[in-house]
Design brief:
Order of helices and strands: EHHHHEHHHEEEEE
Distance between the termini: 24 Å
Oligomer: single chain
Number of strands: 7
Number of helices: 7
Mean pLDDT: 77
Largest sheet: 7 strands, mixed
Length: 152
């Protein structure tokens, strides 16, 4: 997934800890990770999040968090997933432990200190690895172009 040929989409989940209560009290509010994935036609990523049982985590539900913040997700496009060998993708989708590890590599926590991502040269993922950022000619994560930035 870290290939420079991989196209990434970024989702900044705007379900802040302070906003979760407001979202929960509003029955019509549904701006979670799966809603964002659907809106961006990220069907494989959405299926991966569901298979890994991570949608509630990425919606900041059931996660003990002190203070405000949100996840930033560098979601691979369906084309990026299809670039994997078919057997590798199938095996990954069936192995929840590996799938969580791979998805966690694509997620960072923004406690409000990140500010503008284009001013940073690296960020640490939930998986514990560092991603390199480069904003010369558009935002790139580990050399892959970020196509869309959406706040949800």
């Amino acid at each position: 997934m870290a290939s420079t040929k991989v196209t990434l989409l970024i989702l900044a989940t705007a379900l802040l800890c302070a906003g979760i209560a407001a979202a929960a009290s509003n029955a019509t509010a549904s701006n979670g990770i799966l809603d964002a994935s659907k809106a961006l036609n990220l069907t494989t990523f959405s299926k991966a999040v569901q298979n890994a049982n991570m949608s509630e985590t990425l919606n900041n539900q059931g996660v003990l968090i002190f203070g405000n913040g949100s996840f930033i997700v560098f979601a691979p496009s369906d084309a990026a997933f299809s670039a994997m060998a078919p057997g590798d993708l199938s095996n990954l989708m069936e192995n929840q432990t590996d799938l969580k590890r791979v998805l966690s590599y694509h997620v960072i926590w923004n406690d409000g200190t990140l500010g503008n991502l284009s001013k940073l040269s690296s960020v640490e993922t939930l998986e514990g690895e560092n991603l390199s950022l480069n904003s010369t000619g558009g935002l790139k994560v580990n050399g892959a172009n970020v196509l869309q930035i959406k706040n949800y």
